[in-house]
Amino acid sequence: MKILSRGITVQVIAAILIFIFAYAAISKFFNFEIFQFTLTLAPVVGKYAKVLAIVLSIVNLLPVLLLSIPKTRRAGFLYSFCLLLIYAAYIGYSLLLEKDLPCSCSGIAPWFTWTQHFWINIAAMLMAMTGFLITNNLIAIKAPALAKADNRER
C-alpha cells in the first residue's frame, strides 16, 4: 500500500476551494440582480455595487480555473489565499465598524451571520495556505508509522 497523503491532501483542499468559489460565482450569476442590490446596502461598497457585482462574480471564477489545472494549482492556492484574505479583511472591518449588515452572500449560505462568514473565510484561507505550502514542499506530510507498517507487509 503506497502512502499518497501529500497528493491526496492537495487534491482534497483544491476540491473544497473549487467548490466554494464555483458555488459563489454561479450563485452570484444566477441571482445577479439580488446580489447587486444587496451590495448597494453593504458598507463601503454602496456606490460601486454595479461594477463590483460584475467583478466579484468573475474574480470568483479564476481560482476555480487555476485550482483545476495541476500546473497552475500552486498559483490557485496563492490566489485563493489572497482573495479570501481580502474578503476576511472586509468582513472584519464591517463587523468592527458597522451596525446594520446586509447579507450579500447570494445563496452561498444566507443563514450564516457575518461572524460565521468571517470564520469560514479564515478556515478556507488556512486551507489555501496549507495547499500552497504543501505544493511548494514547505510542509512535508509523512506518515512514518504507516510507512514502516507498509514495509513490514512486503
UniProtKB/TrEMBL annotation:
Bilayer disposition of the protein: Multi-pass membrane protein
Keywords: Membrane, Transmembrane, Transmembrane helix
TM region positions: 12-31, 51-69, 76-97, 117-139
Compartments, record wording: Membrane
Residue intervals of the Methylamine utilisation protein MauE domain: 8-133
Protein's name according to its UniProt entry: Methylamine utilisation protein MauE domain-containing protein
